[in-house]
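Input:
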Amino acid sequence: MPSSSLDYSKEPSRPQYELIVRKETPFNAEPRIQNLVEHYITPEKYMFVRSHGPVPTHLDESHIITVQGLADAKQFSVQQLKTQFEKAHVMMAMQCAGNRRDGLHRVKHTKGVIWGAAAVGNTTFAGCRLRDVLHAVGVVSYKNDLHVSFESVEQVITCEETACYGSSIPLCKALDEFGDVLLAYEMNGHTLTHDHGYPIRVVVPGYIGARSVKYLKSITVQDHESTSYFQQRDYKLLPAQVGTEQEAEEYWCKVPAIGEYNVQSFVCHPAHDSDKVVAEGTRLTAQGYALSGGGRSIQRVDVSNDNGDTWQVAELYQPSMSARAWGWCLWTIKNIEYKGYPIVSRAVDSAGNVQQEYPVWNYRGVLNNAWRTVNL
Amino acid sequence: MPSSSLDYSKEPSRPQYELIVRKETPFNAEPRIQNLVEHYITPEKYMFVRSHGPVPTHLDESHIITVQGLADAKQFSVQQLKTQFEKAHVMMAMQCAGNRRDGLHRVKHTKGVIWGAAAVGNTTFAGCRLRDVLHAVGVVSYKNDLHVSFESVEQVITCEETACYGSSIPLCKALDEFGDVLLAYEMNGHTLTHDHGYPIRVVVPGYIGARSVKYLKSITVQDHESTSYFQQRDYKLLPAQVGTEQEAEEYWCKVPAIGEYNVQSFVCHPAHDSDKVVAEGTRLTAQGYALSGGGRSIQRVDVSNDNGDTWQVAELYQPSMSARAWGWCLWTIKNIEYKGYPIVSRAVDSAGNVQQEYPVWNYRGVLNNAWRTVNL
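Output:
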């Protein structure tokens, strides 16, 4: 087996987590859904971990990041990034593209880690601005269709070969003065831990987590997207009729890589699986999260206790710390009667996008944002 | 009647239009839906016109625009804007927030002009960058929560009082180097016509048309949104339970003004009302438009001929002229069988947002993007 060629013997210890492990190697874990609404800023113990290979625990602040492309190549140690560039902060939701994959997987087999609805969290990051670093190496002006490619130290197995994890974002996102893309070295006020990218990671607010490359090794400005498997043949929203690896083969190159994520919400309390222990007629407080990609704020969360026939408007908690809404929204609805149906939520974002009723199934099981949780 | 206090005697003549008039005073008109897919760049004769009052036909290029706010106030004539600032171009869809209001109005009475699905078009604009003008008056740095307010010469009646049309956008959109907000003096390569804002208008790509203020009189940088009726008490997406003017009263201040629009598509050919003259079993070519707000491109358009049971993927035509997809997408599907149901389309944008099945009704009838056209 090719995965045996990767060494998982040096994984960090994880006694502090209160997570459900979805996969041991690479390590993938998410919290219980109820825990997500306990804090607006998700504590690390409740923050999902998404690895694609063994965690490179040997790195420290002497680690060198190469910045190259249109301008002269330059190298910076993490220590230099910390001292030579202004420290910036961003509070942002991080969401895996596969969050809620289980809802699609129940419809039909999907490829990927079967995440529940907790592959999402909301934390603060601190680091230097990618924009400042690009300016420092001479990338100041914008040209259409350029990309910033990130390569990681993280070793992965794809197509039976060993490679480094990689991904890219459009240069216009990287240079956007309101884009808030950081090379982060802190999360929630503390030095990044191994599982979250120590010593340095990219964070791309408003984009799927796959673009926030951990254990960053190089940054390349180029005229094409990253050629990595994870940009080219994964994290894409395939049409519903593509149902096998063979059928996917001809579609990967036709379908764009996902950047921003879609409008999303979920009921965290009562958790869907706890509904059965509540008696019909009980009045309760429902709580959940909502978020949308690209800095779009949540405008409204509708909640239904009668299978979608009627909807009530939830109270939102969504403090803004930036020009764009990178953080998630927590919502609450009090005194709602449990009528025997799962309580469901439907968010509307600032652009008027709304979660659809039924999932649009896709082979990779990404971007599921249906408000109805299908039980087959 | 208060509207009698506005003078509609100086309206421009409109012999060139091939439009269906939805309202005479103020003049509101849209093309036949089939015409929209004849050209990727919508000719003016097929471009919808949305007026809020009498067209100020007395203006010319000596018209003065005042720019004021945080910096010193300055004044520019249209002629000066043309000669003192670089000329920039944008190709963009312009869509009224009320496009497809008829679909909501069939569910329940809405307030507003009953537009069909052709209150949208795709044109090119040329003008100076709002960003450059703001820089020229000293607004260069960004602060959170500032807004750029636009006031028009156009006289309107709101709440039984005469006022000037006005609106605002966030300063971060105005200053965004990829935001492409122009003070435009040309459309489709020709000087703006009276109905489209001569001598100068704002165009805000990716935002509802209401923010692209015509007959611009002043630009103000301020710490709050425009206080205009059209920013504060209109063009808002109210919750479904708000069904009357009285109920709306308490909601206007709680609901954000719409900026970006949501993911949208529509079948233009065959037009829904022409379906009845096609025999079941006929194979035909279906065509339509698709677009999304905020520069999000269209990733896929699914088309169904069997009431949404199965979907086929359409071919897309969506040339990019900019870092962000401001233009619309025209789509085609060949050799699709007419099975007695209206052919419907469902677009997915680059953030994975998808049109929902049923309309979420709202009192003002805005942002209807349901793929199902409800006939009651």
